[in-house]
Structures are given as structure tokens and as C-alpha cells.
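Marked as duplicate of an earlier ticket. Keeping the data here for the record.
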Amino acid sequence: MNIHEYQAKQLLAQHGVTVPPGEVCDTPDAAKAIAQKLFTAGATLVVVKSQIHAGGRGKGTFKSGFQGGVKLCKTADDVFEKAEAMLGNVLVTKQTGAEGRLVKKLLVAAAPEIKKELYLAVLLDRATSRPIIMASTEGGVDIEEVAEKSPEKIVKEWIDPAVGIMPYQARKIATALGLKGDVFNPAVKLITGVYKTSWECDAAMVEINPLCIVVGPDGKETIVAVDAKMSLDDNALYRHPEIQAMRDLGEEAPLEIEASKFNLNYIKLDGSIACLVNGAGLAMATMDIIQHFGGLPANFLDVGGGASKEQVTAAFKIILSDPNVKGILVNIFGGIMDCNVIATGIVEAVRETGLKLPLVVRLEGNNVQAGKKTLGESGLTIITGDSMADAAKKIVQALGK
């Protein structure tokens, strides 16, 4: 689950991470009032930031023609004008696609004088099954770009989850970022706080880009998380009802929301062959083999290891809600899952939805013979595949590709 920047900053602040003062709002008048409060408190510049689940906001374009989803303002009246231009309009960035995202909230915050931009993130290294802290002196740009052009500028520190981040590790990262003097100890505290936020919130990723050395009103340098991006592990959300309440359904695809109600993992793609598979690894392999034979997958849909007939029926309905779908490939390897349960679910789903599209089913594993018998005796037009490759080839051929 993704959350907005302002929500990520709230969680970071709770764990001792310094963030610029600011508030979220949903009207131009509220934006102006927040700005007036910030200017009165000593801010010389205020930033107005569109709150959507996508990067590249500053370089984005609104469908109204207004340029930029992040604006610096010197007066409260200017904040009002920028807020009026952003709220209720659709912002298109390199990450939203052409459809863009409707801006319903803004973060209005103090914009400190930035002296240096850095990068800091905490994520899970699946190779070692440990959290990893990544940092770089090259802040403000995509980390992928840094990794490609200047990999030596990325610092990595693995954390033992049994003991958590040690003080020496935070100091090591701060030193690698070239931090010293008055900002060194605050940086060590901030790095520790970012890790604790990630760990205690069960985050899949926390990214601070840019992490900035700024000059305060008193002329002293300090370090602040100017931007923040955070995604949470869906499987751990039951432990965090307060974070679950931060979910913004307006930022998620309707079909993905519907799938989550049935504990299905669904991601819409651009192709025409829908996939219904059990297990994320098998789903990835299925999408690959469809492309290998000349087709394009329309979705990633993982029904999990123990799907019920009701989940299979729901999955079919979700698949058929996508007008781009021209055929369906079901690829099931029954380990924990009973192939006959899946077969029964497929038969019921086909009858209930009145499916007219080509359907290829490949079943293998637990109780597979009973599953194949259920499909064969259904009287429905179902094409069976003897292997994953055979099934993929048949669905591509059925679409005339």
C-alpha cells in the first residue's frame, strides 16, 4: 500500500525525523491560511505540493494547461492562486501515464534554503533477507540514474534485523555522505529515525529524495527530509490500523480495489490475454511465456495458494471488467491448492458470467485428475493445456496472433 507524502512525513516525524513544517489542505482558502501561518512563523518561501501517488510532480502538466504540480511561492496570495490552479484538476507526470491523477489535496510547507541535496532510503534486500540502507550524495535525481551512471556514489549498509541499526552504522552512512560539523549528529539521529520508521511501520520502502542540508533562519545548517515516499507491506497492515486508515482508494485502480476485497493480487496491464494463476512466481513466468509466443498479458492476477470457488468467480468477474481482454489463460499448479476446487470454480464462473471469450486451462498437481474430469464433464468450451508452454501457445493461437 502506498501513502501520500504528507502521511509519510507524519510517520517519519513520529520517529524523530526532522521534516519542514507544513499542513495538508483541500481548498485554496485553507492553503492561503496555512501559508500565512508559515510566513508569520518566519518562512521566506512556501512550497505548494500536489498530493498524488506518483513521482515527477514538479515537471508534470495539468490537463488544464497549468505547468507543474510543485510550486514555490513568496506570498499567501500566490499560494492561493497556485492552489486554485491545482485542486480539482488532473496532473499528468511521467509516472501517471496519459490518464493522469486528480489532485484532491495539497501539502503547503515551509521551503527552507537548500544548500545540498542527498538521497536516503531503506528497503528490503531479498538476496540477504535483511533491510538495507542506501544513501548517495546525488540527491534530487532518480536513484536508477545514479546506479547506471555513477554506481560508486551509492553507499549500502545492511542491517541485522535481530538487533536493528547500530549507532556506528548511522555514523558510517553520515560520514559517507560527507556530513560533518553541526549537521553530523542530527544526521545520525535522522538516519536512525528513518530506519526505525521503516521497521516499526513494516514498510516495504522508505525513500527520502531529496534529503537536504538546509540553512535555518538563524543561519545555521541542519538536515531535513524535504520529500518522502513510503510504501507499506500489505501483509502486515493488520498490525497497523492507524496506517491502514491512510489508504486513499481514489489513488488506486478500481479493479485493484475490487480484487483486494477478495484477497486477490491484481495489477492491470496493457495486453489482451488475461492470466489467472496461483503464486507470484508462476504468474511472472506465465506472463513471460505468453510474450514468448507473441501475446501480451492483460494483467497480473495471483489467487494465492488456497483460493476458494468464490475467489475464482470473483477473479473471472474482475478479468472480464477489462474491455481489453480478448482471451483468458488459467495456469494452476496445485500444491496446497486442490485442482478440483479451482476447476469447480472455473466452471461456475464461466456459467455465471456467460463467458464467450477463448479460455485455456492448464492444471497440474494436487487432485489434478478430478479437476480435469470436472472440466471435461462441464459441457463448456474449455481448451486444456498439457503444459505451461502448450497452454500459452494455445491461447495466443486462439486469438489469432
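See parent ticket for discussion. The chain has a mean pLDDT of 91.
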